[in-house]
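Re: that chain you flagged

S.,

Sorry for the slow reply, it's been a week of failed gels. I finally had a moment to sit down with the sequence you sent. For the record, here it is as I used it:
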Amino acid sequence: MIVFKTYLALLNKILSNFGVFILYNIILIALFCGVYIEIGDLYLAELFYYYISFFISFSIFYFLLFRNKSLIDKKLSLKKPLFISDKVKKIIPYFLILSVLMGTIIHYIDIGFVPIIKAILIIDYYEIAEIRKQANLLTTIPIRYLSSFLIKSIIPFLLIYLMVKKNYKLYTLIYLIAIFYAFSLMQKSFIITILLPSICYAIYLKKIKFLIKHLTVLFIFIFGLLNITNPQVSETKKNNNVQIKKFEKTNSNHSNTNNPVIIFLNLIKKRVILTPGKIVAKWFINIPNNEPFLNGCGYRILAPILGCDYKNYGQELYDDIFPKYAAIGIKGNVNTTSFMYDYANFGVLGLLISGLLMGALISLIDF
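Prediction finished late last night. Pasting the structure tokens below so you have them in one place:
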């Protein structure tokens, strides 16, 4: 028992000091496995360059931060806290809650419909894909930025803030609104972005009930969204739609079983390991073989400075990576890992720079 407690304490210490580093390594392992499954060892050298750059950067920065920990703590303790009156402190959360409510409603008004409700009434795979595309394309630029700000900043901050303040009534309200908003936009990444800070906070404070609740909601969310956006999961829809049957026959990655749990697990395996690795592999294959390195023109901020037109390979490579969808007129965006955007601009040098920056960032977070 004593030995077990010792190992548990050691594990807790390792996770508290290197938690984000370990998590990022797990993500990279899954990603590299997906690349290997897709194209073998063709681009493993490039991935290796990125990882070595990342690891060296993390090690150096973490060592420097740890070595100067007492000095950093001393300087931070000398900083005067920002004074905010109690009235303002009480008003700010309600203002942010109102912003979330109004922002959600404005977004629906802007596109003219609630995507998930429209998709539930449709049994055609390609029509559902078109709805997902319209949810983004029909949104005007200001509302698109507003939506991104809500999902990536305001909502995660509000959830953490209300959890810390133990204001569980308002927390539950924002939680439900956030879940519906993310679900309605039919993007799995949104729910992860919203809940990940709260999940990390629950792990840090060892709030097991909160953690179980968040993870349960996360899996229900993904299962429900996969069921709606992939009609082949539903036996009823499959029997009522010939086009979906054809889609299933041409998609070798989908399981033939009718068990929804097995289908769900297969889809999770595909989306977590196979698809991200496949996308990275396709970017490697297309750049620079079919598309040239952008030399900085792939960064929206840098392009005007360099005097070139901004190019988004995420959109331009869609037709090459998903020719079947492109053939029937579906347009989309092929999002990939951050280091692939740097590779698209500067090749191997971009991978090395990206690794250095990511290592420095994660060392700062873990510190």
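What I noticed first: Residues 2-39 form the longest helix (38 residues).

Talk soon,
D.
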